[in-house]
Design brief:
By secondary structure, this protein is α+β, with helices and mostly antiparallel strands. Helices cover 45% and strands 13% of the residues. It has a single domain, classed as L-fuculose-1-phosphate Aldolase.
Length: 241
């Protein structure tokens, strides 16, 4: 996919998550690799509200620029620490979304932050989310970014305990749907916990089968994202400018 289309897709993801109420004031960042080695990537600039982001607003950055960009006025240091290290150290990650959505963050604040498999949305994440239990404040150093990449390991999702969540994927569409469903799963789990009744967990076999079934319908994720873009095309076409 060329840079122009990546810009449009990433801007669409920002607008959609703003509509869903999953933004965090003017914080949080998404990025998408442009170059084959992943080191050149697009990212939103510092302190711009998700609902206002256009394709042309996205910064084109180079993960090898180091200290020069760390002090750039348009680049949030926490975003540079996390996304710069992701695209420098994990070239297979083409898209990285970091959010503090309410329900996922609530689960991330539990002593046991695992997404328990109680229905098909939660089962999508069975044994497929890495946990980072070492929150130490704002992630604003290269060392902290590198630590988060290491914590992610071979998984595509990272539950950042006492913090938020990170989702990575091959395309913006897959990452969008994954983040949407992860938040929906955490909402369902939070509501189930709130009843005070014991959870009726799916068996290991059923949870694993359901997770594998999800992995086989990437076209579902892409269709979800394309439908959301069609809504934006009618109601907020400026995202593609």
């Amino acid at each position: 996919m060329d840079e122009h289309q990546l810009r449009i897709d990433l801007a669409a993801a920002f607008r959609c998550f703003a509509r869903l109420g999953m933004h965090e004031a003017v914080a949080n960042h998404f990025s998408a690799a442009v170059s084959a080695d992943g080191r050149k990537f697009l990212m939103n600039r510092k302190w711009q509200h998700f609902s206002q982001i256009k394709a042309s607003d996205l910064l084109l950055l180079d993960a090898d620029d180091g200290e020069e960009l760390a002090g750039h006025t348009d680049v949030d240091p926490t975003a540079w620490a996390i996304h710069g290290q992701i695209h420098r150290r994990a070239p297979h990650v083409r898209v990285a979304l970091h959010l503090h959505p309410v329900y996922a963050t609530a689960i991330a604040c539990l002593k046991d932050p695992q997404i328990k498999p109680i229905e098909q949305n939660t089962a999508r994440y069975f044994n497929r989310v890495a946990l980072d239990t070492a929150f130490g404040g704002m992630a604003d150093t290269a060392a902290e970014g590198a630590r988060l990449v290491e914590a992610l390991g071979d998984k595509s999702r990272l539950m950042m305990c006492n913090h938020g969540v990170l989702v990575t994927a091959s395309t913006v569409g897959e990452a969008f749907d994954d983040m949407y469903t992860l938040e929906r799963a955490c909402q369902i789990l939070t509501l189930a916990y709130s009843t005070g009744q014991p959870l009726n967990l799916l068996s290991t076999e059923v949870a694993e089968k359901t997770a594998r079934d999800w992995e086989g319908i990437v076209d579902f994720s892409m269709a979800h994202f394309e439908e959301m873009k069609r809504i934006l095309d009618k109601e907020e076409p400026s995202y593609a400018d």
